[in-house]
Design brief:
Elements lengths: L1 E6 L2 E5 L7 E7 L2 E5 L5 H15 L5 E5 L5 H4 L9 E5 H19 L15 E3 L2 E6 L2 E7 L8 E5 L4 E5 L13 H11 L6 E4 L5 E2 H27 L25 H19 L12
Parallel strand pairs: 4-5, 5-6, 6-7, 11-12
Antiparallel strand pairs: 1-2, 2-3, 3-4, 8-9, 9-10, 10-11, 12-13
């Protein structure tokens, strides 16, 4: 696991075990706020111990924010019994319906998850919620697209945005909505940010943000257009494999090459959506 300070008392943790998924901690004089939790107990516990050690004497860890219901963001919440867990209302609803079964399935190929316990959020919101703590203003806002329940976390004074999976090296929209994600990305572009913490991968610096957001929007528009054209031409889904990720404006290198799998999954998902209509997306269809 990598640990990085992105601003005064704001830390980012990046998993070495699963898809470079990220989580964070914001320390204040009145306690700490944890943003997502990492999926595997070894890394989640290491992050928890760091957060506790630095918040001793400052009222400890006050809140854990879950940005959405996918497994790689929620599995470590049980390690913070002292904290209030916060999420969007949709996130809690999805966790109630699907998280336990998803965890049982995950344990079949990852026995290190046997100790994980699903902890549901106790405090939920819709649209927007603001936490004011120790001189920091932390704004939680709806940011749908990757999934319907995603929220972003904006630390206003530092101009740092934990964008969750709204921003990734390659957008991932399986189970989500392309057009909703484009709108969420457009909203991010107007915030004048210093840093974006992507849901997976490296922290974006101020000079990288505009280009990355524009590139992600262009990618989504490109694959949307290509898939629609394939359907108009009545080409079989297998032909989508010929659409290279680099032809859509994205590198195949990030996340140790995992982005290529995301890209192919995006194409297949859009093909089925536009051919048959969207599936039931109220399920945690994939960890990412």
């Amino acid at each position: 696991m990598q640990r990085e300070r992105v601003a005064d008392n704001i830390w980012v943790f990046t998993s070495s075990l699963f898809a470079q998924v990220t989580a964070g901690v914001v320390f204040t004089s009145e306690g700490a706020v944890v943003i997502d939790t990492l999926p595997y107990p070894s890394e989640a516990r290491e992050m928890r111990d760091f957060a506790r050690s630095r918040s001793l004497g400052n009222r400890g860890i006050r809140y854990v924010v879950l940005t959405h219901s996918h497994a790689d963001h929620i599995y470590g919440a049980y390690l913070y019994p002292e904290a209030e867990v916060i999420s969007h209302r949709r996130c809690r609803d999805l966790m109630r319906r699907h998280a336990e079964q998803g965890l049982r399935d995950a344990r079949e190929h990852a026995p290190e998850l046997n100790e994980v316990q699903i902890r549901l959020p106790g405090l939920v919101f819709q649209e927007e919620m603001t936490i004011r703590l120790g001189g920091r203003t932390i704004v939680l806002s709806e940011s749908p697209g990757h999934s319907a329940d995603v929220v972003s976390v904006f630390i206003k004074e530092d101009k740092v945005l934990f964008a969750s999976d709204t921003v990734m090296p390659v957008p991932y929209i399986v189970g989500g909505d392309t057009h909703a994600l484009i709108k969420s990305l457009e909203a991010i572009a107007d915030l004048g940010l210093e840093n974006i913490v992507q849901g997976h991968g490296e922290v974006l610096l101020r000079g990288e943000i505009v280009e990355t957001v524009a590139s992600n929007i262009a990618y989504l528009q490109k694959i949307d257009s290509l898939v629609r054209q394939y359907l108009r031409d009545k080409l079989p889904r297998q032909e989508l494999q010929a659409i290279d990720i680099e032809a859509c404006g994205k590198s195949r290198i990030p996340l140790s090459g995992l982005v290529q799998r995301f890209h192919q999954a995006n194409l297949a998902y859009l093909y089925e959506v536009y051919r048959h209509g969207p599936p039931n997306t109220e399920q945690d269809q994939d960890n990412e």
